[in-house]
């Protein structure tokens, strides 16, 4: 399951002067998609090394990480439990949690205050379970960084600009460490999808120890995490129809919008080679059906 993967590099059709390619990690798996697959690879290996067969993790009610973890655990024959942020009543009709349940994940709904204390929750519920293995929200960990760093080895080594969207910054940290490991001249451009995304630089630095080839673009959050505007929704529609490639409103649409906007502002040289990492997360569209009603 974590050996052969399908993640081709495809050129976008409608940006013509610059060569813009997309690393299609969204095609790795519909449910263990994109960076969540990359992150889980070594987390599952660590659990198995420590002979733990019960993953315990954390996420919001529309978390791609929860679905990915549930699917990966079922395929590996592992038990899994998730602490879900929020009240059960607000989540009953949620498509993402339905998938989690189908894959056999046990859900523990947790109010926002207790949810903040992840280590205490784990301790409270699973101190007696010697098989329980703690996996942080979004899979953030050194193992996840290692998995994401492997993406660099699958890319050409003459890329000028590599783009990714960031929530916790773990994926970005992996990409940047891969760039340094291979001694590439590539600049990593990171689009935080939340407001005040400057903290991402420090998150990345914790793992990489340097960030001289990093550029953060903090003004493409569209109001904050999971927030959208009609402009972004319109962009998703146009992009998807033109490229035949789905993008999600929470992460990848903000990244592609940023690239489009930098391109329009002539940020790139015509000869620059640009790659965008499609981190997947397309199920995120399901929670946002209503925002597409107007168009
Ligand atoms: C989770 C997720 C991200 C954010 O990854 P981080 O490592 O937390 O920065 C980006 N894109 C998609 C599609 C995701 O599901």
TrEMBL record:
Alphabetical list of InterPro entries matching this protein: ACCD_DCysDesulf (IPR027278), TrpB-like_PALP (IPR001926), TrpB-like_PALP_sf (IPR036052)
Tagged with keyword Ubl conjugation: no
Molecular function GO labels: D-cysteine desulfhydrase activity
Keyword Coiled coil: no
Active site: 63
Cofactor(s) named in the record: pyridoxal 5'-phosphate
Highest taxon above the source species: Bacteria
Domain Tryptophan synthase beta chain-like PALP span(s) in chain numbering: 7-280
Keywords (A to Z) from UniProt: Pyridoxal phosphate
N6-(pyridoxal phosphate)lysine PTM positions: 36
SUPFAM superfamilies, alphabetized: Tryptophan synthase beta subunit-like PLP-dependent enzymes
Similarity remark: Belongs to the ACC deaminase/D-cysteine desulfhydrase family.
Protein name, as recorded: 1-aminocyclopropane-1-carboxylate deaminase
């Amino acid at each position: 399951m974590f050996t052969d993967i399908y993640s081709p590099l495809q050129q976008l059709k409608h940006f013509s002067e610059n060569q813009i390619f997309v690393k299609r990690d969204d095609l790795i798996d519909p449910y263990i998609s994109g960076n969540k697959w990359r992150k889980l690879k070594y987390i599952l290996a660590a659990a198995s090394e420590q002979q733990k067969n019960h993953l315990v993790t954390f996420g919001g009610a529309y978390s791609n990480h929860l679905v990915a973890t549930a699917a990966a655990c079922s395929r590996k024959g592992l038990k899994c439990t998730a602490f879900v942020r929020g009240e059960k009543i607000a989540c009953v009709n949620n498509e993402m949690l339905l998938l989690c349940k189908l894959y056999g994940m046990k859900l523990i709904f947790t109010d926002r205050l207790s949810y903040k204390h992840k280590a205490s929750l784990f301790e409270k519920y699973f101190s007696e379970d010697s098989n329980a293995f703690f996996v942080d929200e979004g899979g953030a960990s050194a193992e996840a960084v290692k998995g994401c760093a492997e993406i660099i080895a699958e890319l050409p080594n003459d890329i000028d600009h590599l783009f990714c969207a960031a929530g916790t910054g773990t994926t970005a940290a992996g990409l940047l460490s891969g760039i340094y490991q291979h001694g590439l001249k590539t600049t990593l451009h990171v689009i935080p999808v939340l407001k005040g995304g400057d903290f991402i630089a420090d998150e990345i630095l914790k793992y990489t120890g340097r960030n001289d080839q990093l550029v953060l673009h903090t003004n493409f959050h569209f109001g904050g995490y999971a927030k959208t505007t009609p402009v972004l929704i319109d962009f998703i529609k146009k992009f998807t129809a033109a490229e035949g490639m789905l993008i999600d409103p929470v992460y990848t649409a903000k990244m592609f919008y940023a690239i489009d906007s930098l391109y329009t502002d002539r940020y790139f040289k015509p000869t620059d080679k640009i790659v965008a990492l499609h981190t997947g997360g397309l199920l995120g569209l399901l929670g946002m059906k209503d925002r597409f009603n107007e168009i």
